[in-house]
Write a structure and sequence with these properties.
alpha/beta; UDP-N-acetylmuramoyl-L-alanine:D-glutamate ligase; 9-stranded mixed β-sheet; 4-stranded mixed β-sheet; 13 strands; 28% strand; Carb_kinase_PfkB-like; kinase activity; kinase; transferase
Length: 305
């Protein structure tokens, strides 16, 4: 893992989504009205990671994703405003993906997602070019790409190209629910060659069958050189070679909306690695970004001024 500055851009490949965030208090009332505060904001795990990474001064961040023609211009403007260079493929047949985020203000701002992936997982091998790696020092892949045939093929092509150029690759498994549907037995082969894995606690435990996050991190690190398990209010674990080597505490925060907290961690962590930080220091920066993320609505940092 990096012990010096890596010269080049961070290339993020992943989902660009329109988030409809509905904050309510207490249980939903079936068959009638539940009062809520509703906002439409740009989101998507891949796009969020890119925006949080771009917050670090001096970090060049590029984003490849697929969007519908319906909101392509809006998403491009929003990404650019966060300092990201968007490299978006516009789909003329399918609209941009949409996620309805139900955020319970009485349950530590815990969220439930209703997901229509739309154009995002229609990213395919034909959308890849080896030229995308020109000037790139690190490739990050959103795990959502693993959950559709076309985007899985894209991941395989991108991984092969990155390995050929010696570009390190990280991946965030993205969704315990979708991982279960994919089949956890398929996961190791799909991510072979990845250098850094950044699962949540639930994803790590699901992938290993372990009930303890530290045990899960240790097991995963026998397959992937560096594993960073995100544990929300409990901070993060770092594991290598079958052992947990660091425990990083969370930064205290008052949650308003936990949407995108893991993406914030990942973006800040990767930007710090590129700047030469060791993984433990990078994880501290990730925890700080995660704390900032939960205190606002939506999964993106504020646009640059």
């Amino acid at each position: 893992m990096p012990e010096s500055v890596r010269v080049g851009a961070l290339l993020v490949v992943g989902d660009v989504i329109t988030d409809v965030v509905a904050r309510h208090r207490g249980r939903l009332a079936p068959g009638t009205d539940t009062a809520a505060v509703i906002r439409t904001v740009p989101g998507g795990a891949g796009a969020n990671v890119a925006c949080w990474a771009a917050r670090r001064e001096g970090t060049e961040v590029r984003l490849v994703g697929r969007v519908g023609a319906d909101t392509a211009a809006w998403h491009e403007r929003e990404l650019t405003a966060c300092g990201v260079r968007p490299l978006l493929v516009v789909d003329g047949r399918v609209p941009t993906g949409t996620v309805i985020c139900l955020v319970d203000g009485d349950a530590a701002a815990e969220r439930t997602f209703l997901t229509d992936s739309g154009a995002s997982m229609r990213l395919g091998p034909g959308d890849w070019s080896d030229a995308l790696l020109d000037g790139v020092a690190w490739l990050h892949l959103s795990g959502y790409l693993l959950f559709a045939e076309a985007s899985r093929a894209f991941v395989a092509v991108a991984l092969e190209a990155a390995r050929a150029r010696g570009v390190p690759v990280s991946l965030d498994p993205a969704s315990a629910g979708f991982l279960g549907a994919l089949g956890i037995d398929r996961f190791p082969a799909l991510v072979e060659g990845v250098d850094v894995l950044l699962p949540s606690r639930d994803e790590a435990c699901l992938l290993t069958g372990a009930s303890d996050a530290a045990d899960a991190a240790a097991r995963l690190s026998r397959r992937v050189p560096l594993v960073v398990v995100k544990r929300g209010a409990e901070g993060a674990l770092i594991a290598r070679s079958g052992e947990v080597c660091a425990r990083v505490p969370a930064v205290p925060a008052t949650p308003r909306d936990t949407t995108g907290a893991g993406d914030a961690f990942t973006g800040a962590f990767l930007a710090a690695l590129l700047a030469g930080a060791e993984p433990e220091q990078a994880a501290k920066e990730g925890c700080r970004a995660g704390a900032q993320a939960v205190e606002q609505t939506g999964g993106r940092p504020p646009a640059r001024t």
